[in-house]
Amino acid sequence: GVKLLLHGLCSNTTVKSLDLKGNNLRTMGAEALGKLLRQNKSIRSLILEWNSLGMWEEGFSFFCQGLGANKFLQRLDLRNNQINHQGAGELAVALKQNVSLQELDLRWNNIGLLGGRALLNCLHSNKTLKRLELAGNNVPSDILKAVEQAMDHNQDRQTILRETQNRAHILSKEVLSLKDEKTKQFLDLMDTIDKQREEIARSGRMSAARVSQLQEALDEQHSIMNSLKAKLQMTEAALALSEQKVHDLGDLLNAAKQEQTSMAECHFMELQQQKQEGVDREGKLLRDLSAASEKNLLLRNQVDELEKKYKVQQDQLFQLKQDLTNTTAELKLRAIQAEERLETEKRRFKQSLEDMESLRVKEVDRMTQHIGASERSMQDRIQRLEAIRIALEEELSQVKAAALTARGQAEEELIKVRNQARLEEQQRLEHLEEKLRLMTESRDEAQNCCLKQKQMVAEAQAKANQLTLHADGLRRQLEELQQDLNSKEEEKVTEVNKVKVELQEQIGHLQAERTAQEGLREKIAALERQLKALSSNHREALLDKEGEISMLLEKLRMREADISRMREEEAQRASFLQNAIMAYVQGSPLGTHSSRK
Which N-terminal residues, if any, form the signal peptide (predicted)? Predict the structure, then answer.
């Protein structure tokens, strides 16, 4: 039944603890347990108390082989199983191969001195066993103390490994937090750059809208000029008509004179009257001509005044053109200053990255030097302790191999972290270069827009050369334009101030980052100091334990010498007693009687 049960548990993945106390398991049960330990991957605790497994040597050896192959069992209870020194030796071989068992209870068996020594020797290679109970096994107290010391040594080693793993985890978390902060700061910088680009685009849109308004105003003025031209043509036509009338009147006067000469003889009196009437008419005509000439003079004066006003307007337009060129030059200078600031910020960011890389390289070099010095000291001590015991040599060599593997893993992790940081920094630099390229393209587009605006202004100036009237309205419009330009300049000044404030904030963030990096450096230095202190404490503990081991070995030698002496004395006493008994028997009357017979 137990065989079937254990066969079914071989493929089970949910059972964590198995209690088979007091079931009188024999050879078949022990073999089934060995098979279970080889195949099962879920059982963590196995209780086999009161089963007399040590009586069946073949089954117990198969059980020990399964225990050596198992990598998941953590607790094993073998109390009251009649395990002798041979079974303890097989258990020691299994424990040398096992890497998961943490608790082993062997109380109330028959392990003895040889079994205790075998278990003590296996503890030099097993580093995972934390608890080993050997009470009630006729094991000497010095072996029990050595076993306890080995258990304490394993516990200290596992605690140190846990602490180092926790510290490495904490350092990795801090590195990830630093990466997150850097990414956040980089994203903030990119957001500010995007905001500046949006503000520049808005200003370009506003300027384009203003230029369109100016174009509309110029179109209106052009229409007004066309109407004024039409009025001037009408006045010129009226003047031509008046001149034709004057010419017709002259012709009429000539005809009247001819008629007067022809009819002078007949109608002298009538001619005189007609002469008087002609004189009156001529006076009227002269008056009309003088009035027309005065009107022409007034019109010419008006034309001169309009020409003067046109020249004044041309001067004002020239001043406006100069103001526009000055504003465009200032905008270009501000854009160049902004680009220079971006380049300086980029250089500072690159320098900070290079400083971080140099600091990391220095820290790695320090760690490697410290590890190399520790390895050299450990090698010297190992060479000194080689003459004491072969088992201690094996343990120290294994410790060295573990330290080398840990160092290799740490160096690989550092290399991976450095490679990841370099890749992320390269990606960030590429992203920044792309954004700078986009900014340059936007700047070129803005320059093209400015050139187009200049062309439009030139066309507007060419059109404005035709303006002659309505100077007062144009002056008012020019004053409004000047006010708008002043408001734009104020807005640009405010935008520049905002950019300066944002740059100051970014400088403050960078300074905060520097302070945070200094704090992290101080933390790293403190952690290095703690690691040095822990390593020194560990070395002192190892030295103390080595001294204790040497003392225990000397005590063992003294005890063995005492035991050999006691055995010799007991053998001598036994021989003396045997001789005395024989002498007594021979000298007694019973002995004489038997000899006589």
Answer: none
CA end-to-end span of the chain: 69
Structure tokens given for 120: 């003590």
Determine contact, residues 146/555, Cβ cutoff 8 Å: no
The span from the CA of 235 to the CA of 230, in Å, is: 9
Please provide the DSSP assignment of 454-485 as one string. Answer: HHHHHHHHHHHTT--S-HHHHHHHHHHHHHHH
What's the CATH superfamily of 2-139?
Ribonuclease Inhibitor (3.80.10.10)
Q: Any idea which of 148-152, 434-438, 554-558 has the lowest mean pLDDT?
A: 434-438
Identify the sign of the CA torsion 94, 100, 102, 108.
Answer: negative
CA distance 26 to 6: 14
Residue 129 CB-density burial (10 A; 0-12 exposed, 13-18 middle, 19+ buried): buried
Question: Residue 157, Cα to own-chain centre: how many angstroms?
Answer: 34
Residues, the chain, total? Answer: 597
Q: What's the CA gap between 76 and 315, in Å, rounded?
A: 107
pLDDT, tens digit (0-9, with 9 covering 90-100), for 329-366: 777 787 687 678 777 777 887 787 777 777 777 876 77
* Alpha-carbon span 398 to 392, nearest angstrom: 10
Higher pLDDT, 283 or 392: 283
